[in-house]
Amino acid sequence: MDEALVLARRPANAVRAIKHLVYQGASLPFKQGMAVEKAEFLSAATQGATRHAMLAYADHVGRIVQSGREFGVDDLRDWMDGTAVDFDIR
């Protein structure tokens, strides 16, 4: 159930891309599968919610780096569970 909650917090286009990659890309030869993944990534990267999330992530990491402290997995916990940013922003 936890995995379903995490996916529910993701943008619909990202979930669609993941499904497409699993169902289609994984059955292709490696090079073709990677081409499908690249196309899906580029498509998702042009969406407003994705750009918003990437900028927020870069800001988050930048603050940690500037603080001089060590970067750890706990710094990404909110990102991993999908609660760090509102992915519905367009």
Topology:
Layout: H1 2-8, H2 12-23, H3 30-45, H4 48-67, H5 77-80
Helix pairs in contact: 2-3
Features:
90 residues, 66% helix, 0% strand, single chain, mainly alpha
Please provide a written account of the structure:
With 90 residues, the protein is mainly α. The protein has one domain. It is built from 5 helices and no strands. Helix 2 packs antiparallel against helix 3. The longest helix has 20 residues.
Percent in strands: under 5%
* Low-confidence region ranges: none
Helical content stands at 55-70%
Indicate the radius of gyration in whole angstroms.
Answer: 15 Å
Shape: globular
Number of domains: 1
Query: Tally of extended strands?
Result: 0
Mean pLDDT across every amino acid position: 86
What class, by secondary structure content? mainly alpha
Summarize the helix and strand pattern as letters.
HHHHH
Biggest sheet: strands, sense, closure? none
Number of helices: 5
Terminal Cα span: 27 Å
Structure summary:
The chain has 90 residues and is an all-alpha fold. It has 5 helices and no strands.
